[in-house]
Amino acid sequence: MNNTYFAKSEEVKKNWYMVNAEGQVLGRLAAKIAVILRGKDKPVFTPHVDTGDFVVVVNAEKVKLTGKKLSQKNYARHSGYPGGLRVFNAKTMLERKPEDVIRLAVKGMLPKNILGRKLIKKLKVYRGAEHPHKAQMPKEINL
Fold this sequence. Notes:
Blueprint: E1 16-20, H1 26-38, E2 54-58, H2 69-72, E3 74-78, E4 85-89, H3 90-96, H4 98-107, H5 114-120, E5 123-125, E6 139-141
Parallel strand pairs: 1-2, 1-6, 2-5
Antiparallel strand pairs: 3-4
Helix pairs in contact: 1-4, 3-4
């Protein structure tokens, strides 16, 4: 009789990967990053356990949006006060906070539960080519 294997979070080895977002299409990049964060690319993937790796994204301001998304895609946030809704289009977000554009795209592809909130913390996004994670020796991967 075969037993089903369930990975335990402390047994899974966590690797660090670095992704260069320069010239990458936002949605395709986010989908591949979400797979790595979730651990679906590993043979020990277990849906309810964090089996994924850490991902460092550099050059976030150089990500591409196809079609008319620069002017038509909107990002909204609310302060919690009456009349506190602020809406920005993608072009404004890429100028002000390009890190949030990638972070929000990946966050939308992760589970909407406690595990998803844990997984998004393993994503590190930076505007330029420099990042403070040299000590972890991230492996550069091309997506």
